[in-house]
């Protein structure tokens, strides 16, 4: 004769830890630097010369701005980007 055995199910919980990612918003900028850039931007807007400052935007805002950029002449656009990268590299501004 077979006996029914009682089996207790075992439950386990997994522990998951995500790596901490530093966002562009976490850049080492003082409140004074941010306020100064903000005031410069407001002054330019009053004169009709306002434009978006990428260094004040978040990483996602930078990505959206890059995605929305309308490019008609790809060769000159690539040349311009390469020139900007070269200048930033010479200044040591590349991340």
Architecture overview:
By secondary structure, the chain is an all-alpha fold. Helix content is 46%, strand content 0%. The chain is built from three helices and no strands. The termini are far apart.
The helix tally amounts to: 3
Overall radius of gyration: 26 Å
Strand percentage: under 5%
Report the biggest beta sheet as strand number plus sense, adding barrel if it closes. Answer: none
Overall mean pLDDT stands at 78
Low-confidence stretches: none
Report how far the terminal alpha carbons are from each other. 74 Å
Oligomer: single chain
Helix content: 40-55%
Category from helices, strands and their pairing: mainly alpha
Order of helices and strands: HHH
What is the 3D form? Answer: elongated
User: Using DSSP, what is the number of strands?
Assistant: 0
Observed structural traits:
95 residues; mainly alpha; 3 helices; elongated
Short description:
Residues 7-20 have a biased composition (Polar residues). With 95 residues, this protein is an all-alpha fold. Helices cover 46% and strands 0% of the residues.
Question: Helix and strand layout, with pairings?
Answer:
Elements: H1 31-46, H2 59-68, H3 74-91
């Amino acid at each position: 004769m077979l006996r029914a055995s009682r089996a207790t199910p075992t439950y386990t919980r997994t522990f998951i830890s995500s790596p901490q990612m530093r966002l562009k918003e976490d850049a080492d900028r003082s409140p004074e630097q941010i306020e100064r850039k903000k005031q410069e931007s407001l002054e330019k807007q009053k004169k009709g010369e306002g434009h978006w400052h990428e260094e004040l935007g978040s990483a996602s805002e930078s990505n959206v701005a890059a995605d929305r950029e309308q490019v008609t002449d790809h060769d000159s656009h690539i040349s311009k980007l390469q020139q900007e990268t070269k200048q930033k590299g010479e200044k040591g501004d590349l991340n």
